[in-house]
Amino acid sequence: METQEILKKVKTGEISVEEAELFFRRQPFEEMGYAKLDTHRKMRSGFAEVIFCSGKADAHLLNIFGKLYEQDGEVMGTRASHHQYEMIKAAYPEVVYDEISRIIKIEKPGKQRVGKIAVCSAGTADIPVAEEAAQTAEYFGSHVERLYDVGVAGIHRILSQLDVIQSANCVIAVAGMEGALASVIGGLVDKPVIGVPTSVGYGASLGGISALLTMINSCANGISVVNIDNGYGAGYTATQINRLGVRS
């Protein structure tokens, strides 16, 4: 049944509001041949679909970007190259691109950002992943406080920001090398901590595996860990937690 048919049946009493709600919570998608756009993802999960740009053909990316923008009035893509930005900008001049996080987006004006998420990076080299997390959370409506270059090599730096991390609904700890920042923060706060291991480091860091293993073996409680360099996943999960904090 189409949307209008469902609404007419509700109006005439043929089906209940609850039955109609179940229909709208199903998983319709738009078939594009090379992609199936999950057009009801926001209705089901509270978050609209975001584009992973890396590796996509130009024509595919441009069409997907346009369709999602048309559907929701805003759109975001991660891991976008400068070439992809220039290509999309030619069709959508309002698009913006951040060279550090490699996020490309068009946002609705006047968006309200609520709650508080603290995004901490161990070093300056971790900032690209931290910015991906921070800008993802902001895109989805969270207020973000950034604390960069506060790693364990100078522990006083994070200790000087205790008021910020302890007042946040969630803390994201982004760290390469040995990845100890997540454990330190986990022992200082009473809110969830999301560890993001990065691929920053010398040979024995194994492209982020050492940081990943440190974080998942942390003796501090309340720490969850996303994949290596997955700033987007951390920002998404932190927003889910932040929304719960705002509602309470």
Polypeptide structure, described:
With 248 residues, the chain is of the alpha/beta class. The protein is 41% helix and 18% strand. It contains eleven helices and eleven strands. It has a five-stranded parallel sheet with strand order 8-7-9-10-11. A four-stranded mixed sheet has the order 3-4-6-5, sandwiched between helices. Strands 1-2 form a two-stranded antiparallel ribbon. Helix 9 links the parallel strand 9 and strand 10. Helix 1 packs antiparallel against helix 2, helix 4 packs across helix 5 and helix 6 packs across helix 11. It is globular and about 65 Å long. The model has no long low-confidence stretch (mean pLDDT 91).
Amount of beta strand = 15-25%
Count the helices. How many? 11
Structural class: alpha/beta
| First and last CA, distance | 37 Å
Question: How many strands in all?
Answer: 11
**Estimated helix fraction:** 40-55%
Q: Overall 3D geometry?
A: globular
Average pLDDT over all residues = 91
For the largest beta-sheet, the strand count, sense and barrel status come to: 5 strands, parallel
